[in-house]
Structure formats: structure tokens, C-alpha cells
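Quick illustration, no need to memorize.
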Amino acid sequence: MKQQQGGGGGLLGVRFESQRFRLLSIVVGCFLISVTFLLSSRPDAGAFDTRVKDTVIIEERIGGAGAGGTERAEQEEAESGVNAAAAGTDRQPGNAHGRNELGTCVHDVREWKRARIKACAAVRGVDLTLPDRDARTVPVSSGLFSDRAETQKVGGRAMKLQADPATIITTEQTPAIIKQTTPLPPLCDFSDRRADICDFTGDIRLDANASSYIVVVDPAVPGQSHKVRPYQRKGDETCMGRVTEITVRTSSAAPPKCTRTHTVPAVTFSIGGYTGNIFHDFSDVLVPLYNTVHKYGGDVQLVMTNVAPWWLVKYDKLLRTISRYAPIDLAKAAAAGEVHCFPHAIVSLRAHRELIIERDRSVDGLATPDFTRFIRRALSLPRDAPSRVADGTGRKPRLLIISRSRTRILLNLFDVILAAEGAGFDAAVSESDVGDELTRVGTQINSADVLVGVHGAGLTNMMFLPPGATLVQVVPWGGLQWIAHMDYGDPAEAMGLRYIQYEIGVEESSLKNKYPRDHEIFTNPTGMHKKGFGFMRQTLMDGQNITVDLDRFRGVLQEALGNYLAQ
């Protein structure tokens, strides 16, 4: 009897073990089914992915960004639901329908998740359209934060996408908006004595109608806003009052839509101010412009304010050499409602001293001779050096006198010509005017070995002289030696020219016929400078003419000839 009981107990044990084995087989089978489903539905997922997938990010932008991010979140949480469903099935050893219900469970989890995302989006005011779960096309511009590379099928082939954690990329329009999320350095530098300069990079929109540059940034980035007048006479209220003000600011709001997209930097400057005077044309605009844009090798878009059409015509050859693109007139762009988009922009120009580029301050290590060489190449001027005595031509050195017709007139010009010819020069007079074609003037000046002129804008033509030539500046009475040297003496030497400064005496000035000899204008002329530059200009510059002492001036001519012979 005991043996029978023992035998019956053994049979019962065998049946129990057989039932446990079947249940275990069901569990293992369900697990394998769930793993297979995971791998087949998402090839880039690992079987034992331990990353947290509970966070759903909805990008609050209209367009592809929300859809891309939501699809990913939906797919990941649905897969989590699959694992949960599979685990639940495994815990029911007697459930014979576990395998058949697995697909239904996955579908329910996914539909529940889609409904939840849509509800959340509706609460936050986002019009969100979820893509079909089988769609595999992922917009490049989907606004995703990611710290790892991901592979998706784009256009029927695998593509590796990398999102920078420091930016959000969206696609409201072309080009894609790249929002700056890290703090920006200051957009503008106000420390320079000649000009305030703004230099910035990013997603930049030039709203011409508002005369405003907008840098698109993330809301987390501290805002900046500056107003700049892009002309190189900072502190001169009269001059700067003629210059259009430009706003440079950041914005996290929806930016204006681009009407034209550029792949090159923009450099913005004014040709208002004192332009129209050749000295200011070069010192305030052309020299600083060359210093600012040289590094771009012509791949730069010039944006101009206060444009005078005649100015563009006069300096057309120089502007075409500086930039490959037609300049943008900001006023015309504003009238047309244009918005220009750039990757980089500079507002105002990098100016050093008058007509000078200082090598130690230049970003590209440029110096003044680089600019004068640029001028000669742009205008196809033939001479890079003065004539030589032993060149076999028998040609005399050429002396050119710049004639003035309104103020600071050289009253004995004809006598000076005779004195120059007596000293051994081939003397001539230049009577160029502001409206003359630049190449013609440049060719005439470039032919000279010595250039003579009374202090004034006409001496700016020394830009066209060949290196090694001589400039003679006649300085009017009135303690003007310092301004004469600053405006033309220092630049002449920086250009590689030889410089002679002839300072007239009281007897050579027409002021002796206007004031008594004991007047302060003769006894203490520099003391009168305290009355301001307006007084100096009206009285000491525009208020006198000159008759040079020929005996004194012959010494200057001999010095200039000696410079020529020493070549």
C-alpha cells in the first residue's frame, strides 16, 4: 500500500513538473516574441536598453520640429508598453492567448500614447499633426536636442544626423533658423576713438525698412540692443548728424522672413558725413573699408547708407575691386521691403589715423603701402617708382603743382613754375576737380616725381604717387603745422613718400592786409585755436591766400631735386 502511494506520488510529481515546464516554455516564448518585435520595429535599439524614455518634449513651433520630436517620443514609449505587455503576459502561465493578444496590446499602447500627446499639445496651444507610425522620413530640421548621433532613413537611404546640444534647428523658411543658445559676446565695441564697430555672427536678418540688424537667439540668451552710426568721425556731432543710425539687436521672437539669402558677410557703412571732399572720401571711407574687407578677398557684400549715386560712379573701379557683388543701397532696399539674411555682419569700418593703416592694429597685418598698391592696381596706374636719372631717356624729373581756385590760392603760381623749371624740373599744373574721372586724375598724379600743394584736400592725390616720390606741403600762417603734418605729412611718410613741409611767414600771407601787425593772429596764432575748429577753418584756412617767398622756396626745390637724384 505504501509502495502504491509512493508510486502514485511519483506520478503526481511528474505531472506537476510537466506542467511547470509548459508554463516556463510559454514564458520564454513570449519573451522571445517581444524581443523579436522590438528588434524588427526599431533596428537601432538594443535588447537591454536601460536609458530613461519617460520624458516627452514637445517643441512649441509650427512646422516639422514638433512632428519629428513627437514621433520619436511616441515610438519609444510605445516600445516601453510592448515590454510591459510582454512581461504581463509572462506572468500568466495559464494564458493560452498571450501571443495573439500581444499585437493588440502594442496597438492599444500606441493609440493611447498618440491621444495623450495630442491632448498635451492642445493644452499648450500647439497645432500638432502626428505622422504615420510607419513613416521613416525625418526632416533634417526637426527641432531636437540630442547628445548622440542617430541614424534614420532619409530619401530612401540611411543618413547619420548630429544635433548640436547648443542649438535648436527649425525650418520656418530657407535658410533654417539656427537659434543661439549660449551667451553671446558683446555685439559692438564702443572703445575706438574714431568709430563704434559691431561685428557678429549667427542667424542675422537685415530688416532694411527698420535699418536694423537682428541676431536670432534662444529666449535663454540675454538680450542686446545697440544703436550705431557707421561713419568714422565719432564725436563730431555736425558730421554724424548726416549719418543714418543702424540698430543692432538680438531677438528670440519670430524673425522677419528672408527675401534674399547671402552666403558671404555683410559690411555696412555710410557715405554721408563729410564725403564729397576727396580727403574724407579716402580717410573716412575708402582706407578704412579696405582695411576692414581685405581679408574676404572680394567675397563680401557691401551695404551702404546715405548713398549718393555720383559717389558710386566716381569710385566704381575701387568698389568693384573690393567686392564681387553690387552694393546694396539700404534706402532702396527699405523702399522695396527687403530682408537680407547673412551668416556674419560688420557695421562700421575699422579706421586708424588719417589716411593711415597701422600694421600693429590691422586684423590682417596690413599697412598703408598695401592700400596705395591696391589703388595703383585697381586703376591700372603704370608707375611703382619715380623716374631714374640714368634711365637713358634724358627725361627731366616731373614736378606737378596742385592748383586751388577758391581758398588758399597760390597767388604767384606762375613764378613758382618758372623757379621749378630753373631748378631742373619739368613743371606742370594739375587743375583737377571733384567731378573728374578718378583714373584720369590718378594717371596724371602717378606721372609726377614731386607733388607740390598748399594744405588742403587736393594733397590727398598723393595716394596715386609712386613710392619714393616727394610731397611738398605749403602750410598757411596760423600755427597750423600740427594739423598739416597729421593730415598729410604722417600719411605721406607712411606711404613711403619723401616729405617736405614749407611753413610760410607773415609776409607771405594775405592776412597781413586784413589785421594790424600787433593783432593776436600774428602774435599768438595758436592761442586762437581755442576758439574752435570752425574759427580756424574760416579765418586761418579759408580766410587767406599765399604768395611764397621764391628765395626761400628755391631751397625746397633743391631738396626735392636731391631726393630725386638720390633714387
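The first strand starts at residue 150 and ends at 154.
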